[in-house]
Request: fold
Amino acid sequence: MRRLVIAVIAALVLSSSAAFAHQPVVLLDTDTTAAKGPLLVDGTVSFAIRASFTKSGQKKAFRAQFQEGEALEVQLLIVDKKPENALKSSQLPSVVITGPDGFKATMKINERTKFYEPYGGTNYFYLARYSGVAKAGIYNFVITSRAKAGITLAVGDRTGRPRSAHMPQRGQKRIDRSGWW
Reply:
């Protein structure tokens, strides 16, 4: 009986660990502007935005909503494998963040720090990080490729239930994720 209780507790702990990982969102080829891309209705929840590019000059974009005073946390990462890890900084995509008040920030690639992501068992490199305090409203994120590459943009740093259980959102269609946690 004791082994059964330990096994059940272990299973519950292991199955709940996925709640602490970034929630994946894949940008589509049609997500060429922030308005066409998905809306993360709670930008503080941990999201892993994935974008793949086949050539230079392609754009992919999305939006994230924040409340006044919330943490605005963004990290640009690439997988530690070819061709991405062989690209020079000048060949990696640029990321421009535009706030609701017109504020603009371009993420500067200033590091290649190794990072092992245990949930997917993947090795990454951090390339750039941005931290700030959000103004209330919707932020636009535009990623522009400079070569064939795939990137991950981590947005938010909070695990658990979002302010709204409906996210992300494409156009008027909401995707119900209320059973995530």
User: Anything to note?
Assistant: The chain has one domain: 21-161.
